[in-house]
Write a structure and sequence with these properties.
Elements (H helix, E strand, L loop, with lengths): L7 E2 H4 L3 E3 L5 E11 L8 E9 L3 E6 L3 E4 L4 E3 L15 E2 H5 L3 E6 L6 E14 L5 E10 L10 E5 L3 E2 L11 H7 L4 H9 L3 H10 L2 H8 L4 H9 L3 H10 L2 H9 L3 H10 L2 H11 L6 H4 L6 E2 L5 H8 L11 E5 L10 E6 H4 L25 H10 L4 E5 L5 E6 H8 L24
Parallel strand pairs: 2-7, 14-15
Antiparallel strand pairs: 1-10, 2-3, 3-4, 3-8, 4-5, 6-7, 9-10, 9-13, 10-11, 11-12, 15-16, 17-18
Helix pairs in contact: 4-6, 6-8, 8-10, 9-11, 15-16
Pfam family, one: PRC
InterPro entries: CBS_dom, CBS_dom_sf, Mg_transptr_MgtE_intracell_dom, MgtE_N_sf, MgtE_transporter, PRC-brl_dom, PRC_barrel-like_sf, SH3_actinomycetes
Keywords: CBS domain
Length: 432
């Protein structure tokens, strides 16, 4: 291996791009696979778990890694594209070692003592044989005072006890911290592949807003399973944090009595939005629309509009259009007057009324329009979003291109493997 640093910390590898010899990105690092045989022996690093196109996770042996730096990983390009499946003799550093409670030997000689802490990172180093081994463990003691973090220790692997012990209830503080650094889709991919007990701990540790973001990116089976294991009050809170269209899709997959209970526990306004979306037939504009686009009155200025679209919670497609309506401004609104494109607004003086920059030539969608009709409409007019109105011209919501893709892609697309051909021997061949 060339250009390899003396020491690499596993948690910092997560999310790094992986490149082939031509400089093309082939995936992102998701975890490190090691073989732990005894606490006294430094575990050998077998390889990396890399996520490639289609959210497929593959195993990349360390013999295929040519360089690691602080921003990327380089490989030989000869990768086996078969889906990674963890073996009983293997341990995932990020997924299973972080947050493990251990006993750490601190100090030397007669002054040495043992303290208890939790693992928050693990370092690996390359030996002269060019093999990689886990060399050091970073652990943190429990805090002793209000809002104070405990002392941290970075010690040799041999000075730590408890890393080979399986814990019944392992916390997930450090793993959640690592997940919070990722985009929701990437965090969802990691959670999907965690062992059941670790997934349960992670879900319990995530706050409601973050869990809602992750749930929106998980396959439907995972969504339902996670929601069914939450207590009803928390499940309702998480559903409130989800976008109404995603929450409606999820609730529709639950048993009727469970769905009714959760809707009853949600805030009335949030529940009303979800019920309204569930009232439309599946695969129609009404069922897939977002009921909370950027809606302004005719007296709003360009400055007002730009302030609204700066909201970081808005997706790119929702921020592309502003919908100008008569009162009331909550869907179903007063009559839709027209839409204003963000590109047009950026060219107008801030004090100009948005109503003076409306595109009134854009035909709105009807809630009963099929998914194919919606797709044809967006494609014909090169749109990333379009309004949905009722018979009286009142705005009901907006269909965005990401809503459309979610419904047009084949069922189970989040788990589909990339259409690639293995270029190395099958996984039946030993890794080491």
């Amino acid at each position: 291996m060339s250009n390899a640093p003396a020491r690499v910390y596993a948690a910092r590898l997560v999310g790094l791009p992986v490149f082939d010899p031509l400089g093309d990105q082939v995936g992102k690092v998701r975890d490190v696979v090691v073989a732990i045989r005894a606490e006294a022996d430094q575990p050998r690093v077998l390889g990396l778990v890399v996520e490639v196109f289609g959210r497929r996770r593959i195993f990349v042996p360390m013999t295929r890694v040519t360089a690691i730096d602080g921003a990327q990983v380089h490989t030989t390009g000869l990768l086996n594209m078969r889906r990674f499946e963890q073996r009983p003799t293997e341990t995932l550093v990020v997924g299973q070692l972080l947050d493990r409670e251990v006993s750490v030997r601190v100090g030397e000689g007669s002054d040495a003592e043992r303290v208890t802490g939790t693992v928050y990172d693990v370092a690996m180093e390359q030996a002269r044989t060019r093999d990689w081994y886990l060399s050091r463990v970073a652990a943190r003691e429990a805090g002793r005072g209000f809002r104070r973090k405990g002392q941290t220790h970075v010690v040799e692997w041999r000075d730590v006890e408890g890393l080979t012990r399986r814990e019944e209830t392992q916390p997930a503080v450090q793993l959640v911290a690592a997940l919070n650094e990722l985009r929701p889709a990437d965090a969802a991919s990691m959670i999907h592949d965690l062992p059941l007990e670790r997934r349960t701990a992670v879900v319990a540790a995530l706050d409601d807003e973050r869990l809602a973001d992750v749930l929106e990116e998980l396959p439907e089976e995972d969504q339902v399973e996670i929601l069914e294991h939450l207590d009803s009050e928390r499940a309702a809170d998480v559903l409130e944090e989800m976008s109404a269209d995603d929450a409606a899709d999820l609730i529709a997959g639950l048993p009727p009595e469970t769905a009714a209970q959760l809707l009853g526990l949600m805030e009335p306004d949030d529940a009303a939005d979800v019920r309204r979306l569930m009232s439309y037939e599946e695969q129609t504009a009404g069922a897939m629309m977002t009921p909370e686009p950027v809606i302004l009155g005719p007296d709003a200025t360009v400055a007002d509009a730009l302030a609204h679209v700066r909201n970081p919670d808005l997706t790119t497609s929702l921020a592309a259009l502003v919908y100008v309506c008569r009162q009331p401004l909550e869907p179903p609104t007063g009559r839709l007057l027209g839409v204003a494109h963000i590109q047009r607004l950026l060219r107008e003086p801030p004090s100009t009324l948005v109503a003076a920059a409306l595109d009134q030539s854009l035909d709105p969608l009807r809630p009963e329009m099929t998914i194919d009709e919606v797709a044809a409409h967006l494609a014909a007019y090169n749109l990333v979003a379009a309004p949905v109105v009722d018979d009286e011209g009142r705005l009901l919501g907006a269909v965005t291109v990401d809503d459309l893709l979610d419904h047009m892609l084949p069922e189970g697309w989040r788990e589909r493997a990339a259409r690639t051909v293995p270029v190395t021997p099958p996984r039946g061949v030993p890794r080491v």
